[in-house]
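User: Sequence in, structure out. Go.
Assistant: Echoing your sequence, followed by the structure tokens.
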Amino acid sequence: MKINEVEQLVGITKKNIRFYEAEGLLNPQRNSENGYRNYGDGDVEALRRIKLLRKLGVPIEEIRRLQSGRLTVADAMRRHQVAIDRETENLSKARTVCGQLAENGITLEDLDAAAVLAQMEQMEQEGTTFMNKQKDDVRRRYVAPIVCAVLMAVLMIGVIWLMLWGFDTDPAGAPPMPVLALFIGIPAVVIIGVGIALIQRLREIGKREEDDARRF
């Protein structure tokens, strides 16, 4: 079967199928003539099992251990039950705090954040784990500068390639070498500058210099 057929049969996107292959959870055979993947019934069943386990929230590493025989289904489910119980308890504690704030009926300006944080820190010392959305906010800030830097670098590399291609295609009509070097040097300097700016930006985000006011 081709990947499109497997996608329709199992209900897993091609992107996810390739991800599981990259993680070593799936090893389809390849056609010796064209190198294309050839999925069999065993691969389909493996994907169905992976889909089931992922829907239950079982980590990739646990699935890998199950496939290798280092972990039985019973042991894996017992371990996962413990993790679910722990998460359920954490959510219950968070719900309790939310309920207390809801019952108080106070405005944001009157909210005593220090007192609530102290209560939560005490609960954390007793083993509760709260969701930290602030970490997600910081992670998202990495995406934009990296994407912009990559796009700019690709654009500048394309400009350099076009110049070199033009020189190679028509050496007689190309500008003098010093001028060509200048034209190539400008986008090269831009690439270096973008790289330096990206590194500085990532360091800034890493240090959370922009989040000083939000630190606990």
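User: And one key feature?
Assistant: Residues 136 and 142 are 10 Å apart (CA to CA).
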